[in-house]
Recover the amino acids of this structure.
Protein backbone atom coordinates (compact mmCIF):
# COMPACT_ATOMS: atom_id res chain seq x y z
CA UNK A 1 0.00 0.00 0.00
CA UNK A 2 1.42 3.37 -1.04
CA UNK A 3 1.63 6.08 1.61
CA UNK A 4 2.21 9.79 1.08
CA UNK A 5 3.65 12.60 3.18
CA UNK A 6 1.60 15.69 4.00
CA UNK A 7 3.62 17.74 1.52
CA UNK A 8 3.01 15.20 -1.24
CA UNK A 9 -0.71 15.16 -0.50
CA UNK A 10 -0.84 18.96 -0.51
CA UNK A 11 0.80 19.01 -3.94
CA UNK A 12 -1.60 16.34 -5.23
CA UNK A 13 -4.78 18.17 -4.19
CA UNK A 14 -3.45 21.66 -4.87
CA UNK A 15 -3.37 23.28 -1.44
CA UNK A 16 -0.61 24.36 0.91
CA UNK A 17 0.63 21.86 3.49
CA UNK A 18 -0.48 24.22 6.27
CA UNK A 19 -4.04 24.15 4.92
CA UNK A 20 -4.20 20.42 5.52
CA UNK A 21 -2.71 20.81 8.99
CA UNK A 22 -5.32 23.49 9.76
CA UNK A 23 -8.12 21.19 8.61
CA UNK A 24 -6.83 18.56 11.05
CA UNK A 25 -6.55 21.12 13.84
CA UNK A 26 -10.11 22.37 13.23
CA UNK A 27 -11.53 18.85 13.10
CA UNK A 28 -12.56 18.92 9.43
CA UNK A 29 -10.59 15.71 8.96
CA UNK A 30 -9.26 13.28 11.50
CA UNK A 31 -5.54 12.86 11.93
CA UNK A 32 -3.94 10.01 10.02
CA UNK A 33 -1.55 7.22 10.87
CA UNK A 34 2.04 8.18 11.66
CA UNK A 35 5.29 6.40 10.98
CA UNK A 36 8.06 5.62 13.47
CA UNK A 37 9.41 9.19 13.08
CA UNK A 38 5.95 10.55 13.95
CA UNK A 39 5.40 11.83 10.38
CA UNK A 40 1.87 11.63 9.01
CA UNK A 41 1.43 8.92 6.39
CA UNK A 42 -1.57 9.41 4.10
CA UNK A 43 -3.39 6.63 2.24
CA UNK A 44 -5.42 6.95 -0.96
CA UNK A 45 -8.65 6.93 1.08
CA UNK A 46 -7.38 9.87 3.13
CA UNK A 47 -6.56 11.82 -0.03
CA UNK A 48 -10.08 11.19 -1.35
CA UNK A 49 -11.53 12.71 1.85
CA UNK A 50 -9.27 15.75 1.42
CA UNK A 51 -10.47 16.24 -2.15
CA UNK A 52 -14.03 16.25 -0.86
CA UNK A 53 -13.24 18.83 1.81
CA UNK A 54 -11.34 21.00 -0.66
CA UNK A 55 -14.19 20.94 -3.19
CA UNK A 56 -16.79 21.79 -0.54
CA UNK A 57 -14.65 24.60 0.85
CA UNK A 58 -14.02 26.21 -2.52
CA UNK A 59 -17.68 25.95 -3.56
CA UNK A 60 -18.70 27.80 -0.39
CA UNK A 61 -15.87 30.29 -0.82
CA UNK A 62 -16.77 31.05 -4.45
CA UNK A 63 -20.43 31.45 -3.55
CA UNK A 64 -19.54 33.81 -0.70
CA UNK A 65 -17.19 35.83 -2.94
CA UNK A 66 -19.96 36.26 -5.54
CA UNK A 67 -22.33 37.58 -2.87
CA UNK A 68 -19.69 40.03 -1.68
CA UNK A 69 -19.00 41.13 -5.22
CA UNK A 70 -22.69 41.75 -5.87
CA UNK A 71 -23.04 43.72 -2.64
CA UNK A 72 -19.97 45.83 -3.43
CA UNK A 73 -21.33 46.59 -6.89
CA UNK A 74 -24.63 47.75 -5.38
CA UNK A 75 -22.88 49.97 -2.87
CA UNK A 76 -20.59 51.37 -5.56
CA UNK A 77 -23.58 52.08 -7.80
CA UNK A 78 -25.37 53.96 -4.98
CA UNK A 79 -22.28 56.07 -4.35
CA UNK A 80 -22.04 57.02 -8.01
CA UNK A 81 -25.72 57.99 -8.11
CA UNK A 82 -25.45 60.02 -4.90
CA UNK A 83 -22.21 61.75 -5.83
CA UNK A 84 -22.92 62.51 -9.47
CA UNK A 85 -26.68 62.53 -9.65
CA UNK A 86 -26.75 59.99 -12.48
CA UNK A 87 -25.98 56.36 -12.99
CA UNK A 88 -23.17 55.25 -15.29
Amino acid sequence: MTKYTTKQVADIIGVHKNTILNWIKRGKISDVQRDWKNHRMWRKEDIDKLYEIKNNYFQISISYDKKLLNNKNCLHKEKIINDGGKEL
Observations:
- The chain has a mean pLDDT of 75.
